[in-house]
Design goal:
Layout lengths: L1 E7 L5 H10 L3 E3 L3 H10 L11 H16 L6 E5 L2 H11 L5 H12 L6 E5 L15 H17 L3 E5 L4 H11 L1
Parallel strand pairs: 1-3, 1-4, 2-3, 4-5
């Protein structure tokens, strides 16, 4: 089984590309951080990313989704972010790498869980705010740079997916396979 990571700045269109890849018959694994944020906001926590343990809750959900996806029949899977993204998020938020995050990073490295090519979905040039996405374009570009640095530092190769139509972007991804 081949597992690929889609990453990039918030609002770059990762989820839309993931939906198209799913429609094309590939296995997909959803992003965890957005779902952790949505659930905690529904429970009354306005800014969950400021709460102690936020990073570990993201890591736990990512790990459970990754393990569940391991039993799926698709030969190729696309993961909307990974624990490496969570390490970048921790850096961006000024948090240390927790023991749970360090353990998950070591596990995905040791077990070679993901292909070494990471699809970096580049910014569309704007960020549409949501309840979970409260970031300016300038902050998003800083966040993207931290992601790229974090992946490169861990030996991943960045495959840039520049702004364009969904079908053009997915075409670049498919050709890279």
């Amino acid at each position: 089984m081949k597992r690929f990571i889609l990453t990039g700045t918030p609002g770059a269109g990762k989820t839309v590309l993931l939906r198209q890849l799913e429609q094309d018959g590939f296995g997909v694994v959803e992003e965890a951080a957005t779902d952790v944020i949505a659930l905690e906001q529904a429970c009354g926590v306005a800014e969950p990313w400021t709460e102690p343990g936020f990073i570990d809750r993201v890591v736990d959900l990512q790990r459970r989704r990754r393990l569940r996806a391991a039993s799926l029949p698709e030969e190729v899977q696309f993961h909307d972010r990974s624990a490496v993204c969570t390490a970048a998020l921790a850096t961006y938020l000024g948090y240390p790498v927790s023991p749970a995050l360090a353990e998950e990073l070591a596990r995905i490295e040791r077990d070679a869980v993901f292909d070494r090519r990471v699809f970096m979905i580049r910014s569309l040039g704007f960020v549409a705010p949501t309840s979970a996405r409260r970031i300016t374009q300038e902050q998003a570009m800083r966040f993207e740079a931290i992601h790229e640095q974090t992946y490169r530092a861990r030996g991943f190769e960045i495959v840039p997916i520049v702004a364009g139509s969904v079908l053009d972007r997915v075409g670049v991804i498919r050709r890279a396979l």
